[in-house]
Amino acid sequence: MSRLQISYFSEETTFVLKEKAHVREWIKNTISNEGFRCGALNFIFCTDEYLLTINKQYLDHDTYTDIVTFDSSEVEDLIEGDIFISIDRVRENALKYSKTERDELHRVIIHGVLHLLGYKDKSDEDEKKMRSKEDEYLSKRKF
């Protein structure tokens, strides 16, 4: 049985995640609810520029984004990976969509987890399912 290892890091930002233990438990419950186990997950909170560099270097995308997810899972039902989140983009999107920064951050966090669970968002149909899953798991937060 794999030990739950969810870690949080900051790169080029002073952002520090609040409610770490609650977020960790929420992520664990989401993964379990989808029939998977949680291995090593790293959330790296960063700036727009830092994530743009990652996006260009590894994905050949020259665009700003709120999240980039790298799946390092090697066992079928074990979720592992690195999830880079732009705090600049989260803050801007929270204003744009009239959400709290906390809710927008949690949406992006669970979005990355859902990608690792196999959910896609490239087609309209996939994006609709992804949004539905985000809403479902956001509603299951107990904090």
Throw out a few tags for this protein.
143 residues; alpha/beta; 4-stranded mixed β-sheet; 5 helices; 48% helix; globular
Model description:
The chain has 143 residues and is an alpha/beta fold. Helix content is 48%, strand content 22%. It has helices spanning 20-33, 48-59, 87-96, 101-116, 124-139; strands at residues 5-11, 37-46, 67-71, 78-86. It has a 4-stranded mixed beta sheet, sandwiched between helices. Strand 1 (5-11), helix 1 (20-33) and strand 2 form a beta-alpha-beta unit. It is globular and about 35 Å long.
Q: What secondary-structure arrangement, pairings included, does this model have?
A:
Elements: E1 5-11, H1 20-33, E2 37-46, H2 48-59, E3 67-71, E4 78-86, H3 87-96, H4 101-116, H5 124-139
Parallel strand pairs: 1-2, 2-4
Antiparallel strand pairs: 3-4
Overall mean pLDDT score?
Answer: 95
Q: Could you give the order of strands across the largest sheet?
A: 1-2-4-3
- Judging from the principal axes of the Cα atoms, what is the shape? globular
Major sheet characteristics: 4 strands, mixed
Per DSSP E runs of 2 or more residues, the count of β-strands stands at 4
Strand content: 15-25%
- Number of DSSP helical runs: 5
Low-pLDDT parts are none
Q: What separation lies between the terminal Cα atoms? A: 27 Å
- SSE sequence, one letter per element: EHEHEEHHH
